[in-house]
């Protein structure tokens, strides 16, 4: 009854609730499902993108569309496969992750050597001198700005545009002075202690 209500046709023989039965979905796909799974809401695996054969085809099509070549053996959507990116880098990726947008680590800056090289180049282009040792993109490095201010920043934050705190007006001492001047200019008298901005 539930098959008819949901637009499915039963093609196989019902044995029990746990033995798969062949169904025909409303879009014409043949599909095997345990009646208990169907009853709890499971839909056609092809229509919902869970069909293993369709999953392989979708992965191969996506690789082609994004300019990647499959150079390893595809086993399933959860086992790593070796790809060659459009820039010629070889890397291993889980097909499911690739479908979710994961790209070549070297091209997106997750390669430690490339990240360090890019960070040093970006510092030079923006006029900063690196005073500390680069360890990794998420660990702070001491920099010296053009105006002689030293500050610590993660390479990732620097890549996203973070600049010298003093030059950017985020120096707590400078902010404190600006706050007092603003209060005075507006006729207010601050009676508490300035903690931070």
List the defining traits of the structure above.
alpha+beta, 197 residues, 4 domains, 15% strand, 31% helix, three-stranded antiparallel β-sheet
Briefly summarize what is shown.
The protein has 197 residues and is α+β, with helices and mostly antiparallel strands. It is 31% helix and 15% strand.
Q: Which spans have pLDDT < 50 for at least 5 consecutive residues?
A: none
For the terminal residues, how far apart are their CA atoms? Answer: 66 Å
SSE sequence, one letter per element: HEEEHHEEEHHEEEHH
User: Whole-number radius of gyration?
Assistant: 29 Å
Largest sheet: 3 strands, antiparallel
Number of folding domains? 4
- What is the overall silhouette? elongated
- Tell me the fraction of residues in β-strands, as a range: 15-25%
- Average pLDDT for all residues: 83
Which range best describes the helical content: under 10%, 10-25%, 25-40%, 40-55%, 55-70% or over 70%?
A: 25-40%
Task: Indicate the structural class.
Answer: alpha+beta
Instruction: Going across the biggest sheet, name each strand in turn.
Output: 1-2-3
Number of helices: 7
β-strand number: 9
């Amino acid at each position: 009854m539930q098959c008819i209500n949901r637009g499915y046709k039963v093609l196989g023989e019902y044995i029990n609730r746990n033995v798969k039965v062949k169904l025909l979905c409303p879009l014409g796909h043949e599909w095997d499902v345990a009646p208990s799974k169907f009853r709890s809401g499971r839909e056609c695996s092809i229509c919902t993108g869970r069909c293993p054969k369709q999953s392989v085809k979708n992965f191969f099509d996506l690789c082609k569309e994004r300019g990647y070549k499959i150079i390893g053996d595809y086993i399933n959507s959860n086992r790593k496969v070796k790809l060659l990116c459009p820039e010629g880098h070889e890397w291993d990726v889980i097909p499911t992750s690739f479908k979710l947008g994961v790209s070549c680590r070297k091209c997106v800056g997750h390669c430690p050597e490339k990240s360090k090289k890019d960070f040093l180049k970006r510092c030079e282009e923006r006029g900063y001198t690196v005073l500390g040792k680069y360890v990794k993109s998420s660990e702070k490095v001491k920099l010296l700005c053009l105006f002689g201010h030293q500050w610590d920043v993660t390479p990732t934050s620097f890549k996203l545009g973070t600049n010298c705190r003093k030059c950017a007006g985020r120096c707590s001492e400078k902010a404190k002075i600006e706050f007092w001047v603003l209060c005075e200019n507006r006729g207010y008298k601050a009676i508490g202690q300035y903690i931070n901005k």
